[in-house]
Amino acid sequence: MNEALKLEGVSKSYAEVKAVQHLDLVVNQGAVYGLLGPNGAGKTTAIRMIMDIIKPDTGQITLLGETDPEVRRNRIGYLPEERGIYRKMKVKELLVYLAQLRDVSAGEASQRADRWLERFSLTQRANDKVEALSKGNAQKVQFIGTVLHEPEAVILDEPFSGFDPVNVDLVKNILLELRDGGMTIIFSTHQMETVEKLCDSICLMHNGAKVLEGPLAKVKAERGSGSIQIEYDGRATFHQDSSLVRRFDDSGRFLEVVPTEGVSPQQILSRAQSEIEIRRFQVMEPSLQQIFLETVGVVGEERARLSAEVQ
Amino acid sequence: MGKMLIVAKQEYLNRVRNRGFVIGMILFPILIAALMFLPALLMNVDVEQAATYQVIDQTGQLFDDLVEALPDTNEVGERLYDLEDYLASSGAAHGDSGSRTNGSGAGTVDIDAIVAELTPAVEEGEIGGFFVIPEDYIDGGSAASFYARNVSDDMRNRRFRRILDQAARQVRISRSDLSTEQIAELMVPTQFSTFRVRSGEAEEDEGQTFILAYVFSMIFYMMLIYNGIAAMRAVLEEKTARTAELMISSVRPTHLLGGKLIAIVGAALTQLAVWFISGILLVQQGKSLPGQISDITQLIEAVSVPPMVFVIFFVFFVLGFLFYSGLFVSVGAMVNSETEAQNLQTPVMMPIIAAFLMMFLAIRSPDGMVTTILSMIPLFSPILMTVRACVVMPPMWQVALSAAILFVGVMGSIWISARVFRVGLLMHGKKPSLPELMRWIRYA
What we know:
By secondary structure, chain A is α/β, with parallel strands linked by helices. Chain A contains 11 helices and 13 strands. Chain A has helices at 43-50, 69-72, 91-101, 106-119, 135-147, 165-180, 192-198, 216-223, 265-275, 288-296, 300-309, and strands spanning 3-14, 17-28, 32-36, 58-63, 76-79, 153-157, 184-189, 201-206, 209-215, 228-233, 245-250, 254-259, 277-283.
């Protein structure tokens, strides 16, 4: 598979703050890639460097096979974290303008804008000024502006913030469609749930440094010490066998166990079946949030704060 | 280049469709017309109050001449200068008027006492003022004095002085054996006209050249400040509305800046074209208007402007606009709020104001050393070169050299502003200090 994006040893400091430290990344073409981390982790700085909005102090960025930002501009779509579009312009005029700046002809841009506005139920607002739109609708317009020129890759900084749940779903579905059409999608978020549903691969950042990177499934398999939830009738004793179960939490009819290293869920199941009547047996994958917190290795208050942030 | 033109087109449309721009475009000629015609209109309306003036005529010979020489009336027909012969009236009260008419008793007048007596009356507005004419005034002796609350009206002061002088001369002449006709003949004033010599011809000039130079400078000055500040605001808005990041990801910052500058110049030229056309219409219509307005419009119509002056104005206008717009745009990119912008725009505006003031020097001495040097400096050359071209066409090599220096200046201004623009657009928070600014320029 080809690489859509490659960062090699990229660093950026502001005065005393090391915003990004020696970041290496590889994003494959056609992937949905999530850049995760709490506020201040360096996600936006990394994205701005990828977009050549700020220059890295050191390191090299290759996007769509190009190291020169000028030649790749038209092939990328960008949704900045700080949303902002010309408020005095009309919706469709703005979209055509943005596409023209990416070398799409005015006629073509106009047709595409119509299609997209319809998709987002904004056809009626095409000739309204942007400032007359609600915040959510303005966000939709800006999202359209990001993909209207049919880029090979889009880079979205917190794409779901500011949308209501219905529109989060809409945007999510559109992103998946675009991925099916071959587009590489790179986005940052601190909403771990979205990532689990959408991403093929992830990179976890903390304090400007990468702490974890790889395909989501692999990350989970490697890092995860998943628990097993059992709903049952009868009297269970097997979980007290420490060769089988490392940790447990028994509520009489509900039991959650963490298997001892090397023990498969299958073994747990066969032992449980012999003792109790199982009504539900579920292997729980570790949540990204758990993985993140464990990887970063924070404790106490810091952990509580981060935990709240990455919810 | 293509993207720059797309930006230019869109920015131009955004600017020209702006309601403020349209209103400004309509109001500006009205303002200019008001500035030009108002003084003329005000001259017709005499705001002066009619008042009585006491004349302490110690010579005893000038009073009648003065009354005759000051026939001015205000709009209700009262004499503005209702003169009273102080010594005659007070003398009559004392019963010795006979001694005054032959001038023998005048020497006994106590001027200090009279001044002390009349001063409160002046202060309380009972009389407009008073003249003290000493006995030896007619033969060039001591000075005549005028006492009033307002003595800053230089035009009036000069008029009084001239009239007194004229009256004294008349008395002197009348001592000779000349007849009244001969005296009248002697007193006939002469006329004076100015002719401007240019390209082998001479044409009469009643101040048209001055007006032309003034109007060109005024247009440049006001448009530059108006459009420059508008451009600065637009960049500031780009920053505060956070559109900058999206734009910079789509377009090279230099192209974005270039497009904006083209749009500013385009918008200014649009204004200029609209005004030029309305100006022509105004002059054509103005002739049918009454009184002084018609005189002024005829004066304007009589101005013949050689095409070269227009060419120079156009070239320096466009270059000057680019030069200053670059600076204004940099200010917009550097600051975070309207208030900060206002503080920082002042240093950019100072040279424009200075150049506007230097205009008067350039009109008086268009070929002088100082004018020549100043008109080579990009900060001043747009206004000064145009003024020089209006007054006395400078040598072509000077025009070309000044334009070339200005062109280099434009490049420098754009080079610096592109860098400040690129970094500043994405900087929020503190306004940069000068060393920080230097880093921005080096860094980008």
